[in-house]
Amino acid sequence: MTKQITTRFAPSPTGYIHIGNVRSAIYPYLIAKQSGGTFILRIEDTDQARYVEGATDLIKSTLQWLGLDWDEGPEVGGPHGPYFQTERLELYHQWARKLIAAGRAYADPTPSETIAAYRAADQAAKIPYLYRNHRPTQTPEWHPGIPLRFKSEPKNYQWQDLVMGDLKTGPEVLDDIVLIKADGLPTYNFAHIIDDLEMGVTHICRGVEYLSSMPNYLALYEALGVERPYFISLPHILAPNGNKKLGKRDGAKSVDLYRQEGILPEAMLNFLACLGWNDGTEQELYTKEELITKFRIDHIQNSGAHFDEVKLLWTNGQWIRRLFDEQGIDQFYPRTIDFWPEVATSAPEEYKKRVLSIIYDRLKTLSDLRAMTDYFFVDPKINLAELTTNKFLKKFSETELGQLLTTSIDALKQLQTWDATSIQNTLNQLLVDTGKKTAELFSLIRISVSFAPFSPALDLTLDVLGRETVLARLGAVRTAILRD
Ligand code: GLU
Fold first, then answer.
1. Would you say the CB of residue 12 lies under 6 angstroms from ligand 1?
2. 313: domain CATH number?
3. Can you give 25-90 as a three-state secondary structure string?
4. Residue 209: exposed, middle, or buried by beta-carbon count in 10 A (0-12, 13-18, 19+)?
5. Residue at which a domain ends, from 323, 340, 374
6. Is there an atom of ligand 1 within 6 Å of 80 CB?
7. Torsion of the alpha carbons at 68, 69, 73 and 78, rounded to the nearest 10
8. Is 52 among the domain residues?
9. Whole-model pTM?
10. Is 404 inside any structural domain?
11. CATH (domain of 443)
């Protein structure tokens, strides 16, 4: 029987989840789910100096928002808990003692100044600094409070990485790495190996930055007498331009910030999953379920993928449309609640739903609602220059524009019923009667009711704004332009 697949996401609570790190959660999640396996969340909190209060909560809420529910871990529990490394110290100490008993670990009493001097001397002599060349001859019995080091045995290693292929290294990269620090807490290097082992992790999926430490990890697996798991190294996400790793300066934000800016979780998951992975087809939109079915480890690219915010916005726009069309207004509307402009606060929900239903297909993020819908809730400030300098309108005098507005007002006033079809018919008739081009007449009306750079289709905009508002706004602009 093949072993059930178990994967994990093992973040350190050292700050927010940076967009570049989330694939280390998405991919193992997909790998576990597609085989009916287990996805574990483990909090690697042994680096007390870098610990950030609240970071664990942010990690959990980000995963929940993305729909990456963990089968084992904080809150949900599971047979391999606890899932915070600082609560597992006894376990690391037990395994440490096994290594000591096997002669593969030693307590190191060397003061840090001496260690610094070794390093400086090797550098001066231009020889690679390896601690195993300075291994102390006398080592005390280990007890928490003294650093514990691995006793390395220099040799060649070969291994397979499911993304990077067959890899090998020489003995020069093996060293006496610290397993347990003076404060009694394990290093990442040691703790993750014990945890992955104890938790039955079969596939380790993490950033490529850990690749250089692999020989030491392989040496540890060997010394512990345990089977190696599968390794999946994820290439960096690169800045939009050039070949450097995506950093904060390139606009790499926390996932939470994107959420606040109105990116949908479906879009974020889709976008990140496809950053460095594809199923070999042209498909660009994937639901979580499709990703689970279609994801293939051997289709992960082994070179860095460029972060492209324009693509993220495009993906988000597609998802807004798709979810709105699939779910309908009543189910979709609640997602938009936090994204309306201030001036919409007291507007009735029904009215906001009408606005949403005519504008949703133009949104790239939900927060576009904030920037694009003010004029549906308050009269815009009249700015005649927007009319007189408009590329379709600048050829007309102010008197002509005023007359055109009068004709339009008179025609719209005649409407028996105020709905999009009747409005469209009237607009069409106005085009015939005035002999103006569509772009001319429609720009005049559109700008006069909105003074916004953009509005949805004119008939729909006028319909939602309502007869009174439309006529009042057109009237106010006419008065202003004729008085000018
Ligand atoms: N705690 C490590 C980090 O946050 C995890 C690396 C791993 O997945 O093994 O980078």
1. yes
2. 1.10.1160.10
3. HHHHHHHHHHCCCEEEECECCCCHHHCCCCHHHHHHHHHHHHCCCCCEECCCECCCCCCEHHHCHH
4. exposed
5. 374
6. no
7. -140
8. no
9. 0.93
10. yes
11. 1.10.10.350
Instruction: Report the atom number in ligand 1 closest to the C-alpha of 11.
Output: 4
Q: Are residues 406 and 358 in the same domain?
A: no
SS3 content of the chain, % helix, strand, coil (to 5): 50, 10, 35
Is 426 within a domain? Answer: yes
Residues 104 and 194 in one domain: yes
pLDDT in tens, 328-352: 999 999 999 999 999 999 999 999 9
Give, using CA atoms, the residue closest to atom 10 of ligand 1: 11
Q: Rounded to whole angstroms, how far apart are CA atoms 357 and 360?
A: 6
Q: How many domains does the chain have?
A: 3
Contact 269, 66 (CB under 8 A): yes
Q: Which atom of ligand 1 is nearest to the CA of 196?
A: 9
Helix (H, G, I), strand (E, B) or coil at 98: helix
Q: Active-site positions? A: 248
Expressed as residue numbers, the domain containing 123 is 88-234
439 and 402 in a common domain:
yes
Question: Letter for the amino acid at 152?
Answer: S
**Same domain assignment for residues 223 and 95:** yes
Span from the CA of 14 to the centroid of ligand 1 (angstroms): 11
Burial 80-107 (b: 16+ CB within 10 A, else e): bbebbbeebbebbbebbeebbeeebbbb
Q: Please work out whether the CB of residue 192 comes within 6 Å of at least one atom of ligand 1.
A: yes
- 41 Cβ below 6 A of ligand 1: no
11 lines ligand 1 (CB under 6 A): yes
Q: 137-191, pLDDT tens digit by residue?
A: 999 999 989 999 999 999 999 999 999 999 999 999 999 999 999 999 999 999 9
Cβ(273)–Cβ(26) below 8 Å: yes
The last residue of a domain, from among 318, 341, 374: 374
Sort residue 175 into left (φ over 0), alpha (ψ -120 to 50) or beta. beta
For ligand 1, the distance from its centroid to the CA atom of residue 43, given in whole angstroms, is 9
Asked if residue 404 and residue 348 are part of one domain, the reply reads no
The domain that holds 119 is classified in CATH as 3.40.50.620
User: Does residue 25 lie within any of the structural domains?
Assistant: no
User: Do residue 359 and residue 397 come from a single domain?
Assistant: no
Clarify whether residues 191 and 290 are in a common domain.
no
Residues 109 and 131 in one domain: yes
pLDDT tens-place string over residues 427-475: 999 999 999 999 999 999 999 999 998 899 999 999 999 999 999 999 9
Looking at the predicted structure, is the pLDDT value of residue 371 above 80?
yes
